[in-house]
Design brief:
heterotrimer, A alpha/beta, B alpha/beta, C alpha/beta, B: alpha/beta, Rossmann fold, 7-stranded mixed β-sheet, 6-stranded mixed β-sheet, 13 helices, 16 strands, globular, C: alpha/beta, Pyruvate-ferredoxin Oxidoreductase, domain 3
Chain lengths: ~270, ~375, ~180
């Protein structure tokens, strides 16, 4: 695919594919948040001029084939092991930029040990965590972040917390660890939030460039297909149901005035 | 010639790895391989390398995956239960064609088993090192010197054939000290290039992917067939075994690693009595040294394997001998190292024409059964 | 050159059994012989019994696990009782009589009893009963030479404890010179 030819050279290009994003079709469902989030990551690689020294790690989940979607070097990790694989890469090549792109099942269920320990080691990697409260690739099973009462293929009567336990709030959990430089929760349900999400992703990458430690940007996202909703309804459901349980905000920022505890309080009060 | 030093097997493995250009070590504590990790923890920071104690064996092997994908010589070490945890990662290494060195200092199993020397992970190493079609090269040293020597080979073959290599030793070899002459350190310039590695494209090339996923069934089959074509080369070129007094041997014992040392003593006893016994000691367990066995079928009347397991390698001997000669076995499981005298008795019985299939009896049953 | 020798050293954890074996192994290394040193390992290390197999040979060593020792150094009664029956006829047994006390003796092996723990204390060499016994093994069997064993001590003590080499050598000399007594 070649860039569209412009009839007038004076025309200003307002929107184009980020250079770091490969010219291939993705396999995401219509209305899925992954497309937006991946694009934001690519835009940040462009903005920071780091594509050439970046190595990305895909998870097991809907973004398992994301290695084809980026123009930087990419690998694919066993389910949940992306933080360990990223650790190996970063320790081998300390000057490289390493990011993982993980879903909720990958990061907060099967890969929780790898996540917590990469975080507490202050591993200089940037984690993009897509929380859509469901297992997408396998067809809509209960995730560690599925909400109480949420109906999924494996919680057909709604998530019963007495039996299945409670959802995991990842940013809150990780913010207590000293190795974490940045833990921020964002979403992409409207243009304002998309801009804020990009800012957070960029900050996470910048913190890695500065060698400050582990950064995680949790993106509260939709899965219209497995939620059984139209994309627009899915964004509404997200705002009505997920955001109250997963409040947006900065949970830890080692550069923030007053330190992380004060920041977390502020979020809690908000 | 370099001066010989006295080293534990575990330490010799570690030092030899550093000298072979290994820059990163990821592991998790487990007996009886601990000295290896401890040695790396001490040495790696001094050579600008990385020692990292992972949160689990699972994490450690995936860190190995990452560092190998990034183009570095990297290793992990563990003992039996820990290697089970690494199997997932080993399968991914195979599927992504990544070289790496994995050490298994075997102890008794299954489950938590015991911590004494064992050879009960033979099937795991040679048959089922992870899910899916695939193999790894497996070397079995039987002296501390050989542990040091095989490390460099392991890294080289891993790079040549783009596959993981395991050194399968046991608690006895890991813990014992022997004199060892260490190889000269390899400079970074001597390490093979890894043009496929993920180093960042730096605007110089298109992006590279290290991956084991092929959603298209035909692509998956093609990738596996290509890999198995490499395995054929490995089978052809990399069989290794030591033959000890086999040229005129009427009975040949087949044993590897620590068990082979006991058998060597037993064979010496028999030779002193004028009995024609010999030893084939496989050094590569995969590829199995079938050519040496094929040759021996034309010489010897009977074979006998000695293993520290209920009998696992015996399958490979049977496959190679293919029914043309009796294949006997004499085993103890993890923790009980047979004495040379026990093995000598068994070999004498085989020489006398007896068919022996001796597995250890429970001590209480021993009296009833014999 | 000394004869091929399989040595078993046994005692409580903390008595320096493995270190004593290491001195013997290092002597073999300096003598340019084949040798192996194999410790018992695992929970036994934590205050339980510890033992160590050392083989010295002029041919490749088969099993490093000494099952029929030519020489046994026993530093306590349980160790003596566990291993004495495996000593080859004509073999050598060296016991720390301070720790072993009275024991049943075989008629077909050579005994050397050394009150090593008491001697160590009398000479301000606490913790070096093990090396005193190695000294007795040296004079009893001639597994190497005094000069070589002294160099082996230098090799065996870690750089951090290099100052202890002299004390070890004194202990060696005390053991070597100890007159034979029957227990």
């Amino acid at each position: 695919m070649s860039a569209p030819t412009t009839e007038k050279q004076s025309e200003k290009i307002l929107f184009s594919r980020p250079k770091a994003l490969a010219e291939v079709l993705t396999n995401y469902c219509p209305g899925c948040s992954h497309g937006i989030i991946q694009r934001l990551v690519a835009e940040c690689l462009d903005d920071l001029g780091i594509e050439g020294r970046t190595i990305g790690v895909c998870p097991v989940g809907c973004s398992v084939t994301a290695y084809d979607f980026y123009n930087c070097d990419m690998t694919q990790a066993a389910h949940g092991r992306a933080p360990a694989v990223a650790t190996g890469i970063k320790r081998a090549l300390p000057d490289s930029m390493v990011f993982t792109y993980q879903g909720d099942g990958d990061l907060a269920s099967i890969g929780m040990a790898e996540t917590v320990h990469a975080a507490t080691r202050g591993e200089k990697i940037t984690v993009i965590f897509v929380n859509n409260a469901i297992y997408g690739m396998t067809g809509g099973q209960m995730a560690p972040t599925s909400l109480p009462g949420q109906v999924t293929q494996t919680s057909p009567y709604g998530r019963d917390v007495a039996a299945a336990g409670y959802p995991v709030r990842v940013c809150e959990l990780l913010s207590s660890l000293d190795g974490v430089a940045l833990a921020e929760r964002v979403t992409v349900n409207n243009p304002k939030n998309v801009r804020a999400a990009k800012k957070a992703i960029r900050k996470g990458l910048e913190y890695q460039m500065e060698g400050l430690g582990y950064s995680i940007i949790e993106v509260v996202a939709t899965c219209p297909t497995n939620w059984g909703m139209e994309p627009k309804d899915a964004f509404e459901w997200l705002a009505d149901n997920m955001l109250p349980y997963y409040p947006l905000g900065v949970y830890k920022d080692i550069k923030a005035v007053g330190g992380s505890a004060a920041v977390a309080d502020e979020v809690g009060n908000g | 010639m370099a001066e010989k030093v006295l080293m534990k097997g575990n330490e010799a493995l570690a030092e030899a790895a550093i000298r072979a250009g290994c820059k990163l070590f990821f592991g998790y504590p487990i007996t009886p391989q601990t000295e290896l990790a401890a040695y790396m923890a001490k040495r790696m920071p001094k050579i600008g390398g990385v020692y990292l104690q992972a949160e689990s064996e699972v994490a450690a092997i995936n860190m190995v995956y990452g560092a190998s994908a990034a183009g570095k010589r990297v290793m992990t070490s563990s003992s039996s239960p820990g290697v089970s945890l690494k199997q997932e990662g080993i399968s991914y290494l195979i599927g992504a064609d990544l070289p790496a060195l994995i050490i298994n200092i075997q102890r008794g199993g299954p489950g938590l088993g015991g911590i004494q020397p064992s050879q009960a992970d033979y099937w795991q190493a040679t048959r089922a090192t992870g899910h899916g079609d695939g193999q790894i090269i497996v070397f079995a040293p039987s002296t501390v010197q050989e542990m040091a020597d095989l490390v460099a080979s392991a890294f080289d073959l891993g790079d040549n054939y783009r596959m993981p290599v395991m050194i399968l030793a046991d608690g006895l070899l890991g813990q014992m000290m022997e004199p060892v002459e260490l190889p000269e350190p390899l400079g970074d310039a001597a390490l093979p290039a890894r043009p496929w590695a993920l180093t960042g494209h730096h605007g110089q090339r298109s992006h590279q992917v290290v991956n084991s996923l092929f959603l298209d069934a035909q692509e998956l089959e093609d990738s596996i067939v290509r890999r198995f074509q490499r395995y054929e080369q490995v089978r052809k070129n990399e069989q290794r075994a030591e033959c000890y007094l086999t040229e005129d041997a009427e009975v040949v014992a087949v044993a590897y690693g620590a068990a082979a040392r006991v058998v060597r003593s037993a064979v010496n006893k028999l030779r002193q009595e004028g009995l024609k016994a010999g030893l084939i000691r496989p050094i590569s367990l995969w590829p199995y040294p079938v050519d040496v066995l094929e040759h021996q079928v034309g010489i010897s009347k009977a074979f006998m394997t000695v293993e520290l397991s209920m009998g696992q390698m015996v399958d490979d001997v049977r496959l190679a001998v293919a029914g043309r000669r009796p294949v006997n076995y004499f085993n103890h499981t993890g923790g009980i190292v047979p004495t040379p005298e026990e093995v000598a008795v068994a070999l004498r019985r085989v020489l006398a024409g007896e068919e022996l299939h001796i597995v250890p009896f429970h001590s209480k049953l021993k009296g009833e059964q014999q | 050159m000394a004869e091929n020798m399989n040595i078993m050293l046994a005692g409580f954890g903390g008595q320096g059994i493995l270190f004593a074996g290491k001195i013997i192994a290092n002597a073999g290394l300096i003598d340019g012989r084949q040798l192996s040193w194999l410790p018992s390992y695992g929970p036994e290390m934590r205050g339980g019994t510890a033992n160590c197999s050392v083989c010295l040979s002029d041919e490749a060593i088969g099993s490093p696990l000494v099952t029929e020792p030519d020489a046994l150094i026993a530093m306590n009664l349980p160790s003596y009782e566990r291993f004495v029956s495996s000593v080859v006829p004509g073999g050598v047994v060296i016991v720390d009589s301070t720790m072993v006390g009275t024991c049943t003796m075989r008629q077909d092996i050579e005994y050397y009893t050394v009150p090593a723990t008491a001697l160590a204390e009398e000479n301000g060499l606490q913790g070096l009963a093990n090396v005193i016994l190695v000294g007795k093994l040296l004079s009893a069997t001639g597994f190497s030479t005094e000069d070589v064993v002294k160099r082996a001590i230098d090799k065996s003590v870690s750089a951090k404890h290099a100052d202890l080499a002299e004390a070890n050598k004194r202990a060696l000399a005390i053991g070597e010179a100890w007159a034979v007594q029957e227990c």
